User: What shape does this take?
Amino acid sequence: MVVVRTVPRAFAVALLPLAFLHAAVLVMTVVGAMPEGPIPSFGAGAAARPLTRVVAPDALLISFAVRLGLDGLFFLVLHLRARALAIGSRGAYAAIGGAAALLAYAVTREIDVGAVDLPAGIVLTAGVLPGLVGLITGLVYWQTAGLESIADPTAEVAAAPMRRYDGPIQVRTSFGAMGVAAIVPGLAMFVLALPLMMLGVPIMGSAGEADLQQGLLFALAVPVQMMLVALLVTAIPGALFGLAVHGLARSMKRTRTLDYVGCGAAGGIAVAVALAPFNPFTMLGLLAVPMALVGAAVGGTYRLLAGIEPLPLPEPVRVSDLDTLVPQDHPARSSHQVIVTDPRASRPRVACPRRPG
Assistant: This one.
């Protein structure tokens, strides 16, 4: 039986998308629970707007840990059950990740571990996003952990060893890996915006407690908001860019991760050059360098998650006339066969004398 391996490192890597989702949702929910009013100004002399409902950091940490812990627990249980049933396909593990995230979401709603409550009317809708991210978690774990062959205890004959293959290979065309790679530009927006927003947070001791809490919340919420908007805007272009990078690398018969990183970086620079007339910056490097880094991340992410497959065999040829099965350099392909359709054409012609003019 071929099943997915149990690897703690792959388990931790697979939970990163769900961890990021829970952190982003908690921050946005806390900011949404703040009273209405202008965004506070930072500084020693700034008048901080009082918070009527401040969530304690311990409550946020406990809520985050419980949510992520339930995700990991349900995913581990379903993974062990899949191994027992000899289920190891990519689609099955995508479904396992989505089911684990939905089960964890339902349990957290029942035991009320949220630092803040969701508004009425969006409880079911809010579970869609964890389910989608759970699909990504399952795909990441399937690709990162790898497969192994185990003996079936109920079989009378010992399992045959796994086959070895040393023939030509190519990178798979995977829509799941393409979807994961498409969110890389949105994540890059968050990574670039977070340090800039943290520069505006007041230093401890230079402002009051309420001002400091408001500054931290907005410094985290604004990059998350930018990331969500960027995900909506760049999801389809990111998928098309990843598809172009994959096509470029496959056309050059490249299969290594470093090759895909290079193709992605080259594609990012090409996009930066194409957008140069619309670039508000005077230097092309200010746009080319970030685009190259994002493109390299898209290409590398796709290659890590897509996997490889054997090069397909040539397509079968449908034949109605066996006489046409001759090689390219056969003499029959360098000249045409003559078929006489009129019996009179085979008779020799008799020259008729011309009449005198």
Q: What stands out?
A: The first helix runs from residue 8 to 14.
